[in-house]
Write a structure and sequence with these properties.
Order of helices and strands: EEEHHHEEEHEHEE
Distance between the termini: 10 Å
Number of helices: 5
Helix content: 25-40%
Number of strands: 9
Shape: globular
Structural class: alpha+beta
Strand order of the largest sheet: 1-2-3-4-5-6-7-9-8
Largest sheet: 9 strands, mixed
Radius of gyration: 16 Å
Strand content: 25-35%
Length: 190
């Protein structure tokens, strides 16, 4: 794994078809372009605005850049910010866990980019934080996201029935997790 450290809060991982890096201010237009998509929003928490505007992108980028440690990664393809992987650290007795969320622009679906980028981001996160567990919550209708997590090495830990309310209806939430001492599938660096 080749990680270029630009400073304490920046990282970049180059692959054949994408670059995993920190978010930059100049990513706002591309971020707004790709995230302003109802098909993506339907699989995200309601805290994500929709429609997604340039101002929403600017607010997100300011928030990300104000954080002390890297918790949010940009997926870049052909010089454009087209996706994101973000970690939300838990608190109190769960302080050694974090929730991961991710999305990629619809033109890049089903190309294996998110699976590979998620492996790299989780590996980096485990190596550079005190977290020992990462978990994800996936809506019942999002089987592609469930497959991504399983390919990375996450284990399904349960289904919480009618746990989420999205688009005017209750839906089941599928919970997945991986712990730091488990090998990520396909990652020889661990």
């Amino acid at each position: 794994m080749k990680i270029l450290k630009m400073n304490l809060v920046k990282m970049q991982q180059e692959k054949e078809n994408y670059t995993l890096r920190t978010w930059q201010t100049e990513d706002a237009a591309s971020l707004a372009q790709y995230l302003n998509n109802k098909n993506i929003w339907d699989n995200c928490r309601d805290g994500l605005p929709y429609p997604y505007s340039q101002e929403d992108a600017n607010v997100f980028l300011s928030m990300v850049q104000a954080k002390e440690n890297i918790q949010d990664f940009c997926i870049e393809v052909n010089g454009e910010a087209v996706g994101s992987i973000g970690f939300v650290p838990a608190t109190d007795v769960e302080r050694f866990s974090a929730e991961v969320g991710y999305w990629i622009g619809e033109p890049f679906w089903n190309q294996g980019i998110v699976t590979d980028a998620l492996k790299e981001a989780i590996n980096y996160y485990f190596e550079h934080t005190d977290k020992v567990r990462v978990f994800a919550v996936v809506f019942e209708h999002n089987s592609p996201s469930m497959r991504v997590l399983e390919k990375v090495g996450f284990k399904k830990t349960g289904i919480f029935r009618k746990a989420c309310y999205k688009n005017g209806r209750f839906i089941d939430a599928h919970h997945f997790e991986i712990v730091a001492d488990e090998k990520l599938v396909g990652n020889k660096d661990l």
